[in-house]
Specification:
The chain is α/β, with parallel strands linked by helices and about 240 residues long. It contains 9 helices and 12 strands. The strands form 3 sheets. Strands 2-1-3-4-5 form a 5-stranded parallel β-sheet, sandwiched between helices. It has a 4-stranded antiparallel β-sheet with strand order 6-7-8-9, covered by helices on one side. A 3-stranded antiparallel β-sheet has the order 10-12-11. A hairpin with a 3-residue loop joins strand 11 and strand 12. Helix 2 runs parallel beside helix 3 and helix 6 crosses helix 8. The termini are far apart. The relative contact order is 0.11.
Length: about 240
């Protein structure tokens, strides 16, 4: 699974360490040292993966992710940072990072995360029909895992990667209650410092996108003391 990878890291020793491990697995690697150079490299090279440090000159990693997602670029982004507070980690995920590791990290774990991200991206981009990824429908809500698309009543809904994975899991089991821990597992190994509150942040943002009244949700419901479930409001009204 050879890939074109951009490593955006202003610490030369860290960048060379990441390069060696990536090249050992057969990937082509380009290193840039600041946020603006990372944006320029992504736009011109269109890589398969961006390994992105948060604290960089000219533009930090969070700004880079914000710009890339505003341009509708869907390349996977693995963020690296010395910050370990939960709020910082949640912000990175909320902006659209696919995974997040805090320094110091194990190079072997980093390579495992890279392989996971690349496998998922290749599977999603495959032109062949994927039997295990049918279109999921819960009333007017439609989730298409193969195309990474969401709509409500025919209107497209833009989701971050984390939001999409949680919504797809819920849509695959309508009316089934998912615990926060179970939904956190759907985020496939995000940094160990992130707590179940990550799920609450994604659910709050999803409600803003798929509910008519986010503070009075009809689709994405809280089951107090247990977790969340996705339901069809029209069907629930008929049962009532």
């Amino acid at each position: 699974m050879c890939a074109d990878v951009i490593v955006a890291e202003d610490d030369e020793k860290q960048a060379e360490l990441v390069r060696r491990y990536l090249e050992r697995e057969g990937h082509a690697v380009r290193i840039v040292g600041d946020g603006l150079a990372a944006l320029d490299a992504v736009r011109h090279q269109e890589p398969d993966l961006l390994v992105l440090d948060v604290m960089m000159p000219r533009a930090d990693g969070l700004d880079v992710v914000r710009v890339l997602r505003s341009e509708n670029r869907e390349l996977p982004v693995l963020m690296l940072t010395a910050r370990s507070t939960e709020d910082d980690l949640l912000l990175g995920l909320d902006l659209g990072a696919d995974d997040y590791m805090t320094k110091p990290y194990s190079p072997r774990e980093l390579m495992a995360r890279v392989r996971t991200l690349l496998r998922r991206t290749r599977r999603t981009a495959s032109p062949e029909p994927v039997a295990e990824d049918p279109v999921l429908r819960v009333g007017a809500l439609v989730v298409d895992p193969a195309r990474h698309q969401v709509s409500v009543g025919g209107a497209a809904v833009e989701c971050t990667p984390g939001e999409f994975r949680i919504l797809a899991a819920l849509a695959a089991g309508p009316d089934r209650v998912f615990s926060r821990q179970r939904l956190l597992e759907e985020l496939h190994g995000f940094d160990r410092y992130i707590s179940a509150r990550t799920v609450d942040v994604h659910v709050m943002n999803l409600r803003k996108k798929i509910e008519r009244a986010p503070r009075r949700p009809e689709r994405l419901l809280t089951v107090f003391g247990v977790g969340y479930k996705l339901t069809d409001p029209a069907k629930a009204a008929r049962r009532a």
